[in-house]
Write a structure and sequence with these properties.
Strands 10-9-12-17-14-15 form a six-stranded mixed beta sheet, with no helix packed on it. It has a six-stranded mixed beta sheet with strand order 21-20-25-30-27-28. Strands 11-19-18-13-16 form a five-stranded mixed beta sheet, with no helix packed on it. It is 8% helix and 35% strand.
C-alpha cells in the first residue's frame, strides 16, 4: 500500500480545492426554475389528412414537451387566445404538493381561464419520471391540447440506454368537441362513436377515398405523413410512451422488436418483456428497445384499438433504421394486433406490473376506510349518464377548493356520495335493474393522513352482455395497486389476495370488463382532488368523484384562480 504524504503548506491548498469541489457538487444539484410561455389558440390542421380546427400550443399539437429535473420549479404562462372558449390545463401525474390550486382542474381547483386572459401555473416536479399535461375544461383535450412532461432524476437510474425518445398515442375524431358534447347531452342520446383515426405522436393517415363525399380541400392525402422514429442500429433506446386517447384502449407494437417495460407512471417497474404494450388513457410507460434487427430496412410502429369492437384503422408510424430513407415503407404488412375482445392478455399485463426491487414503497398493511365505486350506465330524466354508486357526478359553478378554503356556503351539495352499493343483491352481469340514477356534486370528505382503499367495480352497461374498460385517474396522489380480479369483488376473500409486498404505485389504472381493481392511498396531500374515468365522454357524462382532505392545512389561495360562481368578487387581477 502506498502512503500519501503532504507538506503542511499543501494542506490549505487541498482544503480549498475540496471546498470548491463540494461547492460545485451542490451547484450541480441545485433546483432550477423552468419557464414556459404558451399561446393557446385554434388553428386549421390536418393531422390525419382531414382538415379541422384543432387547439395548438405555440402552433403545435402535441404541444411542447416540458423538460425539467427532479426538484425543479416549472412556471408556465398560459395565454388563452381561443377567443370564445374558457380553458384550464391539468398537469397529469404531478402531485402538486403545497400547490393544490395549480392542479388545473376547472370546477375543482380553479375557475377557468377566460378568453383573452393569461394565467401562470407554478409547481415543483418533485419526482422523476414520465408525465402528461392536457386540457381539463369540457372535452378540449381531444381537440389537440396535450403534451408530455419529462422529469430527469438527480440520482442514477437502475438501467442504461443510449438514447431517450418520446411518443404520445391518441385517437382522433373529425367531429368537433361541441358536436360531440351536444350529442351526448341530447334526447335521444347520440353516442360519439368510434374515432376515425389513431394518431402516433400527432400524426395519422385517414383514407380519404373511403369518404367520397368529402371535398379535396377537406381531406387531402398530401397534407399528412406518418410519424418517423429514426434509430441507429446496435443501440438501446428508452421510449417514453404516453396515451391521451379520448376513448380507446390501445395495443402498441414495434414490428420485430421486443420491449422491456421499466417505468410506469413515474415509478420503476420490475422489468418484463412484451411484444404488445397495452396502454390506457392517462397512463405512461418507459420501455427499452434494442435496435438489433436487420438494419437494411425499416419497421412498422402500430397502435390498435382493444376492448372495443375494432372499426378504427390502425395507427401507423415508421421505425426508421438509419441510414435508410425515413419515408421508405417497410417491406412487410403491419403486424397483426391482439384480438380486441380478449381480456386475458390485458389482465395478465396488469398483474405483471410490480415495483422494482430496491425501489419498493410498501403500503400500509391495513386501511382506515374502504370505498367501493360501482361503475354503471344510467338514465336521468331520459338523458344517458354514467354513474358511480348510482350517482352521476356534476361539477359546481364554484370550485370546491375555493368554496371549502374560503368557507363559501351553499356552493355544492353537502351530502356525500355513498361509500358502496348493494353488494349482496346487485347483479354486475346484467343491465341495471333500475335504469334511473340521481345527479349530485357532493364529495367524499377524507380524514387527513389516513389510509383509504378504493375498489373499482365494473358492471354491465345498459346494453346486454357489455362491460367497458375504464381507466381511472387520481389527481394529487399516487396509489398502490393492490390487485385485479374477475367478477364481483368479494370483501372477505379477495382482500386476502392483495399484493402488499411489491405493488406498483401509479396515478392511472384500468378496471377491466366485468372485473374489479383495488387501490390504496394516503390522504396526506391537503387539497381537493378529482378521481375520474379518463375517457373524455365518460367523465363528461358523470363518471367521477372528488376527494377532500386536510383543507384546513391549505395555504392562502391565489386570487388568480377565482372569479367564477360565488367567487366573482374574490378575483384581484
Amino acid at each position: 500500500m502506498v502512503e500519501l504524504q503532504f507538506s503542511s503548506r499543501a494542506i490549505p491548498t487541498l482544503l480549498i480545492l475540496c471546498f470548491f469541489l463540494i461547492l460545485g457538487n451542490f451547484h450541480n444539484v441545485e433546483a432550477r426554475n423552468r419557464y414556459y410561455k404558451w399561446e393557446v389558440k385554434y388553428e386549421f390542421r390536418s393531422p390525419d389528412c382531414f382538415k379541422k380546427l384543432v387547439i395548438t400550443i405555440n402552433a403545435k399539437t402535441p404541444g411542447p414537451t416540458i423538460q425539467a429535473e427532479e426538484g425543479d420549479t416549472v412556471i408556465v404562462q398560459v395565454n388563452n387566445t381561443l377567443l370564445t372558449e374558457n380553458l384550464s390545463i391539468h398537469w397529469h401525474g404531478i402531485r402538486q404538493i403545497g400547490t393544490p390550486w395549480f392542479d388545473g382542474t376547472e370546477g375543482v381547483t380553479q375557475c377557468p381561464i377566460l378568453p383573452g386572459d393569461s394565467f401562470v401555473y407554478q409547481f415543483v416536479v418533485d419526482r422523476p419520471g414520465t408525465y402528461l399535461y392536457h386540457a381539463h375544461y369540457g372535452m378540449q383535450r381531444e381537440a389537440g391540447l396535450y403534451g408530455l412532461i419529462r422529469v430527469a432524476p438527480r440520482d442514477p437510474e437502475p438501467f442504461t440506454y443510449d438514447f431517450d425518445r418520446s411518443i404520445i398515442l391518441n385517437d382522433w375524431y373529425h367531429q368537433s368537441t361541441y358536436e360531440q358534447a351536444s350529442g351526448l347531452s341530447s334526447i335521444p342520446f347520440q353516442w360519439v362513436g368510434e374515432p376515425q383515426s389513431l394518431l402516433i405522436h400527432g400524426k395519422g393517415r385517414f383514407n380519404c377515398s373511403n369518404s367520397p363525399s368529402l371535398s379535396t380541400g377537406v381531406c387531402d392525402m398530401s397534407k399528412c405523413s406518418p410519424f418517423i422514429q429514426t434509430v441507429i442500429p446496435g443501440k438501446t433506446y428508452r421510449l417514453r410512451i404516453g396515451s391521451l386517447t379520448a376513448l380507446s384502449a390501445l395495443s402498441f407494437q414495434i414490428e420485430g422488436h421486443n420491449m422491456t417495460v421499466i417505468e410506469a407512471d413515474g415509478h420503476y417497474v420490475e422489468p418484463f418483456v412484451v411484444k404488445n404494450l397495452f396502454i390506457y388513457s392517462g397512463e405512461t410507460y418507459s420501455v427499452l428497445v434494442k435496435t438489433d434487427q436487420d438494419p437494411s430496412r425499416n419497421y412498422w410502429i402500430t397502435s390498435n384499438v382493444v376492448s372495443r369492437n375494432r372499426t378504427t384503422p390502425p395507427g401507423l408510424a415508421i421505425f426508421n433504421y438509419y441510414p435508410n430513407h425515413p419515408k421508405r415503407s417497410p417491406p412487410t404488412v403491419p403486424p397483426s394486433p391482439p384480438a380486441w375482445d380478449d381480456v386475458e392478455p390485458r389482465l395478465a399485463q396488469s398483474l405483471a406490473i410490480k415495483a422494482r426491487q430496491g425501489y419498493i414503497h410498501k403500503p400500509p398493511t391495513t386501511s382506515d376506510r374502504v370505498i367501493v365505486l360501482l361503475n354503471t350506465q344510467n338514465n336521468i330524466s331520459e338523458y344517458r349518464r354514467w354513474s358511480v354508486n348510482n350517482v352521476s357526478f356534476t361539477l359546481p359553478h364554484t370550485p370546491y377548493l375555493i368554496a371549502l378554503r374560503e368557507n363559501v356556503s351553499n356552493a355544492f351539495d353537502p351530502t356525500p356520495p355513498p361509500d358502496g352499493y348493494d353488494f349482496a343483491s346487485y347483479d354486475i352481469w346484467s343491465p341495471p335493474p333500475n335504469a334511473n340514477a340521481t345527479s349530485s356534486n357532493g364529495i367524499y370528505r377524507l380524514r387527513f393522513n389516513t389510509t383509504v382503499d378504493v375498489i373499482l367495480q365494473n358492471a354491465n352497461t345498459m346494453n346486454t352482455n357489455n362491460s367497458e374498460t375504464h381507466p381511472w385517474h387520481l389527481h394529487g396522489h399516487d396509489f398502490w395497486v393492490l390487485g385485479y380480479g374477475k367478477g364481483k369483488f368479494d370483501v372477505k376473500n379477495d382482500t386476502k389476495k392483495y399484493n402488499l409486498e411489491n405493488p406498483i404505485m401509479k396515478n392511472t389504472v384500468p378496471v377491466h370488463p366485468f372485473g374489479w381493481t383495488a387501490l390504496r392511498f394516503r390522504s396526506d396531500n391537503p387539497g381537493v382532488w378529482a378521481f375520474h374515468c379518463h375517457i373524455e365522454s365518460h367523465f363528461y357524462m358523470g363518471m367521477g368523484v372528488v376527494f377532500e382532505e386536510g383543507i384546513e392545512r391549505v395555504g392562502k389561495l391565489p386570487s388568480s384562480i377565482m372569479g367564477c360562481g360565488k367567487t366573482k368578487g374574490f378575483h384581484r387581477p
